[in-house]
Each structure stands twice: as C-alpha cells, then as structure tokens.
Amino acid sequence: MTNSPLYGQKPKTLLVVDDEPLIRSLCVNALEDYQVRAAADGQQALSMLEGNEFDIILSDVRMPHMDGLDLLQRIKMQQPDQAVILMTGYSDKGIILEALKAGADDFINKPVNILQLNTTVDKIYEKQRIRLELANLKRIDKLKSDFLGLISHKLKTPATAISLFLQNIAEGIESPDDANFKQMLKMVQTETAHLEHLIQDLLYFSEATLQSDNQDLEPTNLASVAEQISVALQLTANNRDLQFTKDLAPLRDIAPLMLTPQKLILPFAHCSTMPLNSLQKAGRSISRAGLKPTRLD
C-alpha cells in the first residue's frame, strides 16, 4: 500500500467499497469532483490498494468476506494516515465506538443522502489536505534546521583558518619572506575555494527550497547532469592537488528520463565531493568512474 498523492497535483481520488451495486453506482455518479473506483468487498479493496493510491476510502460496514471494520483495521495498520469514511445503516453505538478506536475519520448514514455524502467527503478531503500541508511544512523546517546547522559547522573551519592567517600577517607573525609563507598561503587558498563551494551549496539549497514542489518533470540526459557535477568536482580536485578523471560513456547510452535535473545536481555533487575531502589528507591521486544509476520506476 502506498502513500496518498500530493494534494493539488493530481485529481482527487476515492475508493468506494460496498457489496450493493446500487450504492457503488450512486457514489460514482454523485461524487463528480472525484475519480471514483469501486470494490465489492474488503478483500477486493485491499487488492486494489496494493497498486493504486486513493485520497479517501468510503466503505460499508456490513459486507461479506471482510466487513468494513476489518478493512478499516487492516488499512490503518498499514497506512495510519489514510482517510477512511464508514457507511452504516446501523445505529449500534458499539460498532461506532469500535470504528472510532480503529481510526475511522467519519461516518455516513444509510440510506445514503447525496448532500451528506458530498459534504462529508469534501470535509475529510480538506482535513487531509491541511494535514499533509502541515506535515510538509514540518519536514521542510527540519531540513532547513539540519542544513543550517551543518553548513554553519562547515563554514567555521575555513573562515577561522583565513581569519587567523590574516591576523598573523597584520601582527607581523607571518611574513612573505618566511619559508612557510607560501605553504600557508596555499592552505588559505584551498580553504577559500572550499568556502566558495559551501556558499554555492547554500545557494543551491535556497533555490531548491524556494521552488514549488510541483515542478514539471522534463526529459533529462543523465550524461549532461553528470557533466555539470564533474565541473564542480574538477575544481575541487584542482584546488587540492588531486588527479580527477571521468568516464561518462555508460551514461550516454541511457535514454532521457523524466526528472527535475536541478534537484539532482546538488545532492550528487555534495555526496561525490566527500571522498575527495577524505583523500586530500592522504595526498593520493584518485580516479573517479562515471555514475552508474539504477532506473527507479
């Protein structure tokens, strides 16, 4: 079972589960703003949920094979945030209490009233939309906080090295005539380049954060993306006296994929520079092979 689609990006979807064909047909016709699919019982509904996503599930309580309460429990066990509305012609408080404990989002009385049906479904859809937006905002805030904490730590080291070097020059501790001056100057140049790289990462991150989540996908050539990443890696390697080679031939045979290329460049470039940082201390020469992506369907 998969997560619900992002609200606002896809048509509103609903799965109605009822053993009565008349009820299923009524819901399909009455809920004009939704793409409605139907299942005759709980087992069929679970099978449909394995390969499909629905914003709301509207289920009868009394059904053969698997009733609505069992279906509700199975759904909430696998996907707690899935919205489920139960339809019942029974006023048994015990059933309602059990359904509430299992996580039912709302109820519709039978016989079904079309006005109540539309009102209840729209209310739950809006509730789910707000919940999802809040969850996304919390996730974005956490990402921002984690990133700013990381970038602040990484900015401190090169900034401190540059500041101390300039302070030593100002106080006459470092002199161009000293034997170690050129070595210290080269170190400062390296730290400056590293600082520039971190600032570029910060700019990429800010741009990605400000961009809308529902960006259009476009045909993307992975070799072109890798070429852009390799430019940043080449500069990093040059600044650290490391040998850099690339082999993008395997990527050129891959057909373009529907992606957002801007969202690929920053994480791959950042992750790919991590081995360079580690190997700099050992003073090794390294050879980087081309990326070998696995297509995700």
Tell me the layout of helices and strands.
Blueprint: E1 13-17, H1 21-30, E2 35-39, H2 42-51, E3 56-60, H3 68-78, E4 83-88, H4 93-102, E5 106-109, H5 114-170, H6 181-210, E6 218-220, H7 222-239, H8 249-252, E7 257-259, H9 261-282
Parallel strand pairs: 1-2, 1-3, 3-4, 4-5
Antiparallel strand pairs: 6-7
Question: Can you give me a brief rundown of this structure?
Answer:
With 297 residues, the chain is an alpha/beta fold. The protein is 58% helix and 10% strand.
Structure in words:
It is a single chain. The protein is 58% helix and 10% strand. By secondary structure, the chain is an alpha/beta fold. Helix 4 links the parallel strand 4 (83-88) and strand 5. Helix 7 runs parallel beside helix 9. Mean pLDDT is 78; it is low at 1-8 and 278-297.
